[in-house]
Amino acid sequence: MIMRDKTVRARAGRPTPSRTRSRRRRYLVGLGFVLPAAVYIVVFFGYPLVYNLAMSFQDYTPRSFYTGEAPFVGLDNYRKIVSSPIFQPAVLHTIVFTVGSIVFQFGIGLGLALYFNRRFPLSNLLRAMLLLPWLLPLIVSSAIWRWMFDKDFGVINYFIRLLPGVDAGAPWLTNGKWALAAVVIANIWIGIPFNMVILYGGLQGIAETIYEAAKLDGASAWQRFRYMTWPLLKPVTLVVLMLGLVYTIKVFDVIMGLTGGGPANQTQTLTTWSYQYSFSLFQFGPGAAVSSLLVLIAAIVALFYLRSLRRSSDGS
Amino acid sequence: MNISTPRLRTNSGGKKWRTNLQLGAGLVAVSFLAASCSGGPTGSSGSTESGAGAAKPASSITSIDYFTDATSSAAFQRVLSTCATKTGIKINRQSLPLKELLPKVLQGASSGTMPNLAFVDNVNVQQLAQTGALTPISNYGFDLSGFAPGIVAATTLNGKNYGVSPAINTLALFYNKDMFAAAGLKPPTTWDELKTDAAALKTPNRYGLALSAPASEEGTWQFLPFFWSNGGDLTNLTSPKSVEALSFITSLVKGGSMSQSVVNWAQADVADQFIAGNTAMMINGPWNISKIDKSGKVKYGIVPIPVPKAGATLTVPLGGEVGVIPVSGGSTQAAAAKVLKCMTDNDQMLQWATGNTRIAPRDTTAKQEIVKLPVLAPFAETVRTSRARTTGLGVKYPVISQALWTAIQSALTGTETPEAALQTAQKTVGSSAK
After folding, report:
1. ipTM more than 0.85?
2. Residue B133 near chain A (CB below 8 Å)
3. Which domains does chain B have, with CATH numbers?
4. Distance (Å, rounded) from C-alpha B3 to C-alpha B266?
């Protein structure tokens, strides 16, 4: 109240000293609010990022931890990872994993969001239950998927064998291509709730009255989706896809739990590869180089995201 | 190698990707500290190493280990408590999954907050000793006479010994007695017998043999008994003997006696398959014994792993944890040594090895142990001549091991022939060394 009083007085053209003082105070208060967040970001995000980047240019061995000596080796670590026979497959797997996951997560998530957007008995309960995959620790879900995917004793192949004319199950997890499909499927299942919840929120924000108007004008269900829901949902869609991309590119637990990057590197992505460098081989330099690549990719995606956000807010 | 629930451990360490960052974040604090006390641990190491014997033991120490499953953890706690009482030294214990242990210790190394006593996997001892963060145990007057040569080799770097093991282990062949009796078979002793028995024991609902070949150290570890016994050499993965060993394992999968899913089974999974009766035989370690006993489902016997030909020498890999004493200052090092001495004396070694179904590294203690637990006899017999994986390789081992487990997976899944897979592996080792 006092503040507002002051502003009112200030606007009324009162003496200047108090105005500058209050402005300075407001500036300081504002700074006080921003500072903790800024310090937090610098210490807990900035420093590790910079440190990781520095490490990627160093010959960092277990010995370096103790002695603090890690000679700079320029681009050697990057050269090493790019010339590694695992580099291309790992990049390819990362792309397949990310695109495959997002397309289906988003598609199924959108379908479910549209479905639950029409109110029906028990819809809230059902929607809540669909959140379960999200609530389960990734460790637990990947362990369960690993059992389900077992070639001989897994429940998925059990059902496949029940199909008429099929007497052998699929070599989930023991054949490279199937294993990649298996980790993607598990990750889709985990990612659906996130997509559904955000998209559902977006749908709720669209006024029902315009649909009623469209109905009166004789728009079909498809037309209503294509020309109303889809464009109106676009800002939310962008958010979901961008976040999905960043989340999916860095997925580690699911792959590690299901295949450990195997069989024979055939589900190795950049994250699992980085982990292997650092914690199986104790070559922290190349490990950091791989994760720097990941950070770079995520940063590029984030830039696109910010640009598209600005564009859409300019447009409105 | 003490990986009783490895898959779970992998999992519980789930946020590994983040660990990398956390490691980085930890280093933030660390570098500030290091700046203020200018290389604290390193600076003092010279004096502490020489004067350790004379220093008065501290009244409490910190200890770290990787015994996280309930049975092992309780057994280890009993030994720690006994030694705390005996020595009058308070022990602050921390347990971490195996995969998180080394990063944690390294993190401590850079911040000068290493535990005073650490129990690490024997494959990591040379790696750790090479950092300069460990003190040689000759400082404390340990007596390693009668210890299995493998474990002494695993803990030795440049002629100095850096750790004392309270328990070791290795692999053997578990077989289902009922299934063997029904088929009228005796446990196999050679590869030929193993192959024919595995084929004979196979039914539509079960396999003849199971072993563990996942994309981790376990895969290499489980393959080594075949590789080494056939004359394979880790520095030359493409030798005909190496190819022959991998071809043998691959032929078991191709012939249908062994599931291809072994490329996804950790050792704990293999034990579960054996308990469920899904396989008539398995390669596994002694830590599974209590689990199989508890299930009460399987009547089993244990024999040494079959050798390539009758009369050939069996060479199994050595597993087990090692107590090491990081550089931390005279009084805490002396206290840690006192505790480790208590833990590796005859009584405590016996208590821990029997409580955890591992083998006592000291000859005389192992003999008493077998009297108590005869089921361990095949392990006790073969572990005496077991070979440490890091022998002659030291810090180069991880690269070779990773290349080898990848080759095993490649061959078992039919992605490459055993020969081609091992050639790829040797190439990987070559390029990784650069």
Report:
1. no
2. yes
3. 38-169+319-383 (3.40.190.10), 172-317+394-433 (3.40.190.10)
4. 9
